[in-house]
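Human:
I keep going back and forth on a fold encoding question. Comparing notes only helps if you start from a blank page. Show me how you would write down a chain together with its backbone fold. Write it directly below this note and I will take it from there.

Assistant:
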Amino acid sequence: MFNRSILYLVAVVGLVSVHGQVAVAQFPPTTSDYEYTPIEGFSQPFRSARVAASVTGIVDVRSVAEGSEVSKGDCLVKLDSSVHQKLIQISRTAMQARGELATAQAELAARQTRLQRIETLADRQHATPVELLQAREQVALAEANVLTVEEKQLQRKAEFNKLTAEADQYCIAAPFDGVIVQFLKEEGEYVGPVDPQVCELAQLNVLSVNFLVPRERRPEIQVGSQATVHFVDSNRRARGSIYFVSPFPDGETNTYTVKVRVDNDDRLLNAGSRCHLLDLNADPNAHAADQPQLTMQLK
């Protein structure tokens, strides 16, 4: 066996001396030389909320359908406001009433005229000082009565404005641009203080991708820096900006929470998708060609 191995080695050396070349197996750098471990996370709506009513009542109309895109301020659900509208009508009538004020102003005018007559008589010594004093007191009381009526009018106007503002609360509006995920109340259901939520709203034109970054990778992360996010389910990559990094790591997992904002105006990216945080401030396709290979080279 030993002699056979020696003969094989001699044959190889002879082959080199005759042809001057031999096939050599060349191993490129190992995977560790190109080591690239993506950080896993998941995407979610940038904002989501359970929209709640600030007043109690019965759901009258759902103004939009589930899955509809809405803008900030759009009415999503209308509560029955028939009783409130009656109160507004009563308040408007009271605010527009002018009879009480007209009576007070007429009484003041009469008291002032009487005072002028008594002052004229007093100049001619035909009115006593007591009569003059009483006339002046009656004018002061009439002026106070007019002021009281005017203040009541202001209070009635303020009450009307209050009821009008409260009427807007019966129309539950969207707090931000988004998509109706689902309704939590059907038409005819009661919305009370214990369970005031009527629907779920999510902002999908911007996504927040949350990652748990190991402690040793924390120096790579900076708020405001750019990052490439790979959406695994749709196999798409997108650039985003890091807008949040937790100030300290989680005690159990020894990881930092990092949030990346990704624009999604074209709706090609999905919330609830598994994601990878790729290189920071790098070409998202930089690692596509970094695959170790076994090559044969002739020398």
Observations:
- Helices lie at 2-19, 82-96, 99-123, 129-168.
